[in-house]
Amino acid sequence: MKEKLNEIKEVILEAARKARQETGDIPAPQDPEPFTWPINCTVGPGLEGAIASESKIGYVNGSKGWLVYRGYDIFDLCAYSTFEEVSYLLLHGHLPTTNELNEFKGKLAKYRILNKTLRIVMSFPVEEMNPMAALRLGTNMMRQEYSYMDKEVGRPKLDDAISSDEDSIPMETTPMGYANAIYEFKTNLCKNPIGMRKTLWDASNTEACYQLIAGVSTLTSAIVRLKNGHMPIEPLPGLSHAANLLYMMTGHVPDPVEERIMDIALILHADHGMNASTFASLVVASTLSDIYFSVGAGIAALNGPLHGGANEQVVHSLLDIGGLDNVKAWVKNKIENKQKIVGFGHRVYKAYDPRARILGPLAEYLVGGRSDCMQVIYQTAKRVEEEVLEQFGREKKIFPNVDFYSGIVYGCLGIPVELYTPIFAVSRVSGWTARVIEYLQKNRIFRPRAIYTGEFNKEYVPIEQRNRDV
Ligand code: CMC
User: Is 347 in the pocket of ligand 1 (CB under 6 A)?
Assistant: First the structure.
């Protein structure tokens, strides 16, 4: 097993070597000069090119294809780090010490147990819902469980405590989260310092970020189980975040290779500049709403096929192609008809996406020796990549993005397609929360403008005089 873990590390280091060969060394920021607001920049539709804030969290160099979290190169983080370390890094700005990491892991383990939230989520028809809709609902329920926003009095009365029998949802495994019969309400986590606006305080609460990072993974796992007619499984305290995610979804403790691959996928998706879902989270936070609503907005934005939803669409289109022999014509047809090829192109990357540089070889590593449909899907993907690059030519600067190979990696881990986008959210919740915390330190409500291209000075016509058919 150790040998296999080393092989995986080698796959990443090789991808890093290749990236450096093609694009040069670790990039310095394009504009390191100190600047003052207001800043001049050229803005396109959809705020393309607009600079809306400062951030120390992550750096994307789109022309070179580099991605950096808090100064650390993504290739190094994937080769040597873990999702827990990376989440801590994004939130706190430095890699954790052993004590800090252990404390953080302990909190994640605690917050992964979401029985009360799950009980409420289970009263909805989750099996009929889009998993992202169910996930968004779940984060709202977490808001009810953990926050004080909608409560008159901060501290729940003892009468409000519910016996664990009443409050537990049925589990396939014995619940382990609560030793005593009475629920401990988490009052100590949600003290509202006097004199501070509740909304701002809640939105900037690091503990709430931990709850969300832990909870979104439990919710995602529970949703897939409920959709398939199974009961949710409680997390195992000793497992890592990645291993717990796989365990809670499948009921099997993953082997170290599966765990490592999942971990790398989570690291890769954790943050990515001012992308649409991060922006959506920040817009909501900037109104001094709260972090649960902010993450809910992120989930909603991530769902779309132009953003996180692309990873599911990729697998569907690779299957639709119907075999290697059809690839050339399929790509040609797409290009001729000016249709987007899902999993390609990026608003920022005009070079090979570094995340795809890692996920592609990882997918290849995982399908090696397999003769099932994942092998066929991978071979089709490879051929599609070759064709797109050849037919578009390198000067068009359309390369595979993070979503092109991620689905194949997830498929090899036995994860169903409808969960690919929720898994993106399991990871990106670290970036959303870290950026919300950072943004609120210098909060300014988002309020861009639209150019009005409509009419003026129209005279109001009463409805009885508007009969245009006559
Ligand atoms: N297939 C074919 N042509 C493309 C593609 C593509 N996937 N992406 C861009 N182009 C072409 C586009 O037709 C246009 O050509 P022309 O100049 O001849 O009109 C040119 O490239 C510029 O495209 P654009 O639409 O202005 O680029 P954008 O920055 O607005 O869009 C994008 C970025 C990601 C929305 C787009 O590339 C796309 O729709 N890709 C497919 C969906 C996808 O894979 N999304 C995942 C994005 S990465 C992960 C994430 O954000 O979650």
Answer: yes
